[in-house]
Write a structure and sequence with these properties.
The complex is a heterodimer.
Chain A (H helix, E strand, L loop, with lengths): L2 E10 L2 E11 L4 E5 L6 H9 L5 E9 L2 E2 L5 H6 L2 E4 L6 E5 H15 L7 H14 L10 E2 L5 H15 L3 E5 L7 H14 L5 E5 L3 H6 L4 E6 L2 E6 L1 H10 L2 H7 L1
Parallel strand pairs in A: 3-10, 3-11, 6-9, 9-10
Antiparallel strand pairs in A: 1-2, 1-4, 4-5, 7-8, 11-12
Chain B lengths: L1 H12 L13 E3 L6 H10 L4 H14 L24 E3 L13 H9 L4 H8 L2 E6 L2 E5 L2 H6 L3 E4 H7 L1 H7 L10 H9 L4 E5 L9 E6 L10 E6 L4 E9 L7 E3 L2 E6 L4 E9 L11 E11 L5 E8 L4 E4 L2 E4 L5 E10 L4 E10 L5 E10 L4 E10 L7 E10 L5 E10 L5 E10 L2 H9 L4 H12 L1 H4 L4 H14 L6
The chains are: A alpha/beta, B alpha/beta.
Magnesium ion binds next to α1 of chain A.
Chain lengths: 250, 482
C-alpha cells in the first residue's frame, strides 16, 4: 500500500472540513475524486501535502509505511508527494528554470545525491517541455507570473514530469484547459504512469477521465467519501449530478 | 498562519554573521581622540602637500560648529567622537613589488572572504584596489590600465602623484561643509580610491575595491573620487565585509563622481559590514555621503547598491543632473534583520533640460529590523521636459519589523513628469508553501523568493558581483530553521 488514510479529520480556524476520510491507494493505481464545490477536495490535497493552516484533529495518514503527519512539508515532497495545484502561485522574479533546479537539487540532496550536472538538467528540461508542449521561452519567465490559466496548469504538469513523484495529486488540472491542452496534459500523465507510482485526480468532469482512465472513482461530500466505484460511477455522476447521492446520504 | 510566521521570525533572528574573524596585523595607531594635532599627525603620516592639510583643517573647524543630524528615522546611541582612533595603518615593510610580498595574513583574510587577490587578478580580469585599515595595500592591473591613461590607485597615491587632479575635483561634489559626517570625513579621511578615465576611453575592466575594517576601535574614513572625462565610461564596484566586534565602529565615507559630457559612470556596491549581534550589540555605524554630478550634456551616473550589513545604515547616493539630457539612476536593495536599522534612498536634482532619473528601491525587513526609504526628487524651473520614475517596494518577513517610505517631490515647471509607486507586502505563506511542496526547504525558499523580489536591482550588477550579491542576500536572512 502506498497511501493509507484512516478516519482523517481536519479543520481550519476551528471549522471542521474533513470529517472522517478513508482512502487507500496502491502503486500503479489511478484514483479520481469528484464531488460538489466546497466539500473538501482541495483541503484533502493540502492536508496530505502538510499545509499547516489545516489542523489534523483525528485519524492517520500512512505513506510508504511511514507516519506522514510527522513529516515537514518539504520532506513529504522529497519522499515523492506532488500536488498539481488548483490555483498555482506566482513567484515574481524567480524563473521556472531556477525554481526547478533548486527543487531538483534539494530533493537530490535529501537522497544523498550530488547536484544535477547543468547539461543533464537542461536536457531534462527540454524533454519535459516537449512532453507538455510548452513554449521554450516560458521557462525563462517567472513562475506563473502573467501566465494564462492554461499555461499555469501545463506548468504544473511540467513540474510533475521534472520531479517524477511517486504519488501525484492533481487538483482540477483540467479546469480552464482547451480541448487540445486537455489532451496534452492527459497524454503527459499517461506517459508518466508506471507500476511504481500512483495518481489521484480531482476533477469535476468526466471528459478528463476519458483520457486518463481511473481504476477507482470516489465521491467526496461534506468532508467524507460517501461513495466509491469504478469508472462507470463518473459517467453516472455526469449524467445525474449529485442530487441522488445527497439524498441517499441525508 | 501564526505558527508559520513565528517560525520565520525565529529562523531569521537566529542568523549569524558568517564573516566574523579578526586579522592580527600590528598596527601603527594614532592616540584616541580628535583635535588639530591629530589632523596634522594624519597629514604628516601621509606626507601630504599643504593644500590637503588646509582642506582638512578647514573641514575640522567647520565640523566643530556642527551637530549630529537627528532627522533620519533611526535610533542611535550618542557617539563619543573623542573615543575613536582616527588613524591606524598596517605596519609598513617596504615597497611591495608583487602579491607574494603582501602580508600572508592579509591574503588569508581575503581568502576567507573568497576574494583572493590572485584569483581575482588571474581569473576575472578585475582590477582590485584592496583597502585595509585605511591604507591601500595593493593595487593590481594599474600597469595595463595606465597604458590607456586610466589612473586607478589609492587616494593617498593620487595625492602624491596627481595632486593637480585631486585639487581640481576633490570637494566639488561633496563640499567639506556638506553635512556632519561628510565634514568629519573631510577632516580625518585616511585613504580610499582614486579613479580617472581620460577623454574618450572606455575602461576595459570592472574596477573593484574591497574595503575591510580591521583594527578595533578604529573609525574608518574612506574617500573615493571618480572622474570620467568627455565620452569616457567606467564601471566601478565597491564591496566589503567586516570582522565581528563588540564595540560599535563608526564608518563615514565619501564618494564623489564627476561625469563630463557624454561620459557614463556605473557605481555598484555590495555592503556587508558587521551588523551587530541578535541583541543589537556591536555592529558598524555606516554614515555615507555618495554623490555624483552629471556635469556635461548627455552624461549618465548609475548607482546600484545591495545593503545587507551594518547596525545602522545612513546613505543616500545621489545625482545632480546639471547637463542637458543627463541621466541619473538609483537601484537599491536594503536588508535589515535582527536589530539592524537602515535609512537609505537617493536624491535626484534635475537642473538641466530633458534630464531623466529612475529610482528602484527594494527594502527587506526581518526580525526587529527597521527599514526606511527616503528620497528627494527635485525638478528645477529650468529643467524643462524632465522625467522621474520612482518605485519603492517594501517586503516584510514576520511582524516585528518595520518599513517606512518618505518620498519628497518638488517639481518647479509644468513640462516635467514625476511618477511614484510604492508597495508594501509580506512574504506570502502561499509562496512558501508552493516552494516547500516542491521539496525546497524553508531557508532556500525564502532565499529564492527574496532574490526574485530583488531581481530588478540585482540584474543591474556586473556579473562578477551578481552571484556574490545573491548569496549574500540569502545568507543575511539565513538561520537554523527550528
Ligand atoms: N483558508 C481557508 N479559510 C477558511 N475556510 C477555508 C479555507 N480553505 C478552505 N476553506 C473552506 O473549506 C471548505 C472546503 O474547501 P475546499 O477548497 O477543500 O473545497 P473543494 O472541494 O476543493 O471545492 P471546489 O470544487 O470548489 O474546488 C470550503 O467551505 C472552504 O470555504
Ligand atoms: Mg478545490
Amino acid at each position: 500500500m502506498l497511501l493509507t488514510i484512516k478516519n482523517l479529520h481536519a479543520s481550519i480556524n476551528g471549522k471542521e472540513i474533513l470529517r472522517g476520510i478513508n482512502l487507500e491507494v496502491k502503486k500503479g493505481e489511478v484514483h479520481a475524486i469528484m464531488g460538489p464545490n466546497g466539500t473538501g477536495k482541495s483541503t484533502l490535497a493540502s492536508v496530505i501535502a502538510g499545509r499547516e493552516v489545516f489542523e489534523v484533529t483525528e485519524g492517520e495518514i500512512t505513506y510508504k509505511g511511514k507516519n506522514l503527519l510527522k513529516l515537514p512539508i518539504e520532506d513529504r515532497a522529497r519522499e515523492g508527494i506532488f500536488i498539481g495545484f488548483q490555483y498555482p502561485v506566482e513567484i515574481p522574479g524567480v524563473s521556472i528554470t531556477n525554481f526547478m533546479r533548486t527543487a531538483v537539487n534539494e530533493i537530490r540532496k535529501y537522497k544523498g545525491l550530488d547536484p544535477i550536472p547543468a547539461v543533464e538538467f537542461l536536457k531534462l528540461m527540454e524533454e519535459n517541455k516537449r512532453l507538455v508542449e510548452i513554449q521554450s521561452n516560458l521557462t525563462n519567465r517567472s513562475v506563473n507570473e502573467g501566465f494564462s490559466g492554461g499555461e499555469k496548469k501545463k506548468n504544473e504538469i511540467f513540474q510533475m514530469a521534472m520531479l517524477e513523484p511517486t504519488l501525484a495529486i492533481l487538483d482540477e488540472t483540467d479546469s480552464g484547459l482547451d480541448i487540445d491542452a486537455l489532451r496534452i496534459v492527459a497524454n503527459g500523465v499517461n506517459k508518466l504512469r508506471t507500476k511504481e507510482n500512483a495518481f489521484v485526480i480531482i476533477t469535476h468532469y468526466q471528459r478528463l477521465l476519458d483520457y486518463i482512465v481511473p481504476d477507482f472513482v470516489h465521491v467526496l461530500f461534506e468532508g467524507r467519501i460517501v461513495k466509491s466505484g469504478n469508472k462507470e460511477l463518473a459517467l453516472e455522476l455526469e449524467e445525474k449530478g449529485y442530487d441522488w447521492i445527497k439524498k441517499e446520504f441525508e | 498562519m501564526e505558527s508559520d510566521s513565528n517560525k520565520i521570525i525565529d529562523s531569521f533572528t537566529q542568523g549569524d554573521y558568517k564573516f566574523g574573524f579578526i586579522t592580527d596585523i600590528e598596527t601603527d595607531m594614532a592616540p584616541k581622540g580628535l583635535n588639530e594635532d591629530i589632523i596634522r599627525f594624519i597629514s604628516a603620516k601621509k606626507n601630504e602637500p599643504e593644500f590637503m592639510l588646509e582642506f582638512r583643517l578647514k573641514a575640522y573647524r567647520h565640523w566643530l560648529t556642527m551637530k549630529m543630524p537627528g532627522w533620519a528615522n533611526l535610533k542611535i546611541a550618542p557617539i563619543d567622537f573623542q573615543d575613536i582612533i582616527y588613524y591606524a595603518a598596517p605596519k609598513k615593510k617596504k615597497q611591495l613589488s608583487g602579491l607574494d610580498e603582501v602580508d600572508p595574513e592579509l591574503l588569508d583574510t581575503f581568502n576567507k572572504l573568497g576574494i583572493s587577490l590572485e584569483e581575482q587578478k588571474k581569473l576575472s580580469g578585475v582590477a582590485v584596489d584592496a583597502v585595509m585599515d585605511s591604507v591601500s595595500v595593493k593595487t593590481t592591473f594599474s600597469d595595463t590600465l595606465s597604458k590607456q591613461g586610466i589612473i586607478f590607485c589609492s587616494f593617498s597615491e593620487a595625492v602624491q602623484k596627481h595632486p593637480d587632479l585631486v585639487k581640481q575635483y576633490m570637494g566639488t561634489v561633496v563640499p567639506y561643509t556638506d553635512n556632519f559626517f561628510a565634514t568629519l570625513n573631510s577632516a580625518v579621511f585616511t585613504d580610499g580610491s582614486f579613479c580617472f578615465i581620460p577623454k574618450g576611453v572606455r575602461c576595459p575592466v570592472e574596477l573593484s575595491t574591497y574595503f575591510r575594517i580591521n583594527a578595533a576601535n578604529t573609525g574608518q574614513f574612506e574617500r573615493t573620487l571618480i572622474i570620467a572625462e568627455e565620452g569616457a565610461y567606467v564601471s566601478y564596484m565597491e564591496g566589503c565585509t567586516a570582522p565581528q566586534r563588540d564595540k560599535n565602529q563608526l564608518h563615514a565615507a565619501i564618494v564623489e563622481i564627476i561625469a563630463l559630457k557624454d561620459a557614463s559612470v556605473k557605481y555598484s556596491t555590495v555592503q556587508n559590514w558587521y551588523p551587530g549581534n541578535k541583541k543589537g550589540e556591536g555592529g558598524i555605524f555606516n554614515f555615507v555621503t555618495k554623490r555624483g554630478i552629471c556635469k556635461g550634456n548627455n552624461s549618465k551616473i548609475s548607482w546600484t547598491q545591495v545593503e545587507t550589513g551594518s547596525a545602522i545604515t545612513w546613505k543616500y547616493p545621489s545625482c545632480i543632473l546639471l547637463g542637458d539630457n543627463s541621466v541619473g539612476e538609483f537601484y537599491s536593495v536594503a536588508v535589515t534583520n535582527n536589530m539592524q536599522q537602515a535609512d537609505t534612498g537617493t536624491k535626484m536634482q534635475h537642473l538641466g533640460k530633458n534630464t531623466k532619473s529612475t529610482i528602484i528601491s527594494k527594502g527587506i525587513s526581518a526580525g526587529h529590523g527597521n527599514n526606511s526609504y527616503r528620497g528627494l526628487v527635485r525638478i528645477a524651473k529650468n529643467a524643462v521636459n524632465s522625467r522621474n520614475y520612482s518605485q519603492c517596494d517594501s517586503l516584510l518577513l514576520g511582524n516585528k519589523c518595520g518599513a517606512h517610505t518618505f518620498p519628497y517631490i518638488q517639481v518647479e515647471n509644468k513640462s516635467s513628469i514625476v511618477e511614484h509607486e510604492a508597495t508594501t507586502s509580506k512574504i506570502s505563506e502561499d509562496q512558501l508553501f508552493y516552494c516547500q511542496q516542491r521539496g525546497i526547504g524553508m531557508e532556500s525558499a525564502i532565499g529564492l523568493i527574496v532574490n526574485g523580489y530583488a531581481k530588478e536591482v540585482l540584474k543591474q550588477l556586473p556579473m562578477e558581483f551578481a552571484v556574490e550579491a545573491q548569496k549574500l542576500l540569502s545568507i543575511s536572512l539565513e538561520g537554523s530553521v527550528g
